[in-house]
Design goal:
Elements lengths: L1 H4 L20 H6 L7 E4 L2 E4 L1 H12 L22 H13 L7 H19 L17
Helix pairs in contact: 4-5
Length: 139
């Protein structure tokens, strides 16, 4: 929708979940190590997370036409991050108990996947900022 709103040409590619794990297929992980969607690619850059995608398109292609006023107090009133989803899933699964057996492997795998990705992005740095991780992209 961001590309359409900015008048950009775009294509849509669908990925099917891995039949064994119900997780991201290797083909999607080749685009981005976390294998998450939605995702856009622009040249060699991959941007994940809906809000980051919208921000990226607006900053790079829209010429500011759809850019929200960063001085508006509501500008930062969203918190979207796919790293929290596995944590919430794990907490809820613990409450449900045995009914989550079918997805237990994924519940265990995803937090480690996110934390491993963050660790690889940060490398040996002793500080953390949005610039430390190449994707998702934040302003």
């Amino acid at each position: 929708m961001a590309a359409r709103g900015a008048g950009l040409p775009y294509g849509i590619k669908f990925y099917k979940c891995d039949v064994q794990t119900n997780g991201a297929p290797e083909e999607l992980k080749a685009v981005h190590p976390l294998g998450r969607s939605p995702i856009i690619t622009d040249g060699g850059k991959a941007v994940t997370e809906s809000a980051a995608i919208i921000d990226y398109v607006i900053r790079h292609y829209d010429g500011g036409r759809l850019q929200p006023d960063v001085a508006d107090p509501a500008y930062d009133d969203y918190a979207e991050g796919s790293a929290i989803q596995p944590v919430v899933l794990k907490v809820n699964a613990a409450r449900i108990g045995e009914g989550t057996a079918a997805i237990e492997a994924r519940i265990e795998r995803e937090p480690a996947n996110d934390l491993g990705y963050i660790d690889r992005c940060l490398g040996a740095t002793t500080t953390c900022s949005a610039a430390s991780c190449p994707a998702p992209t934040f302003s």
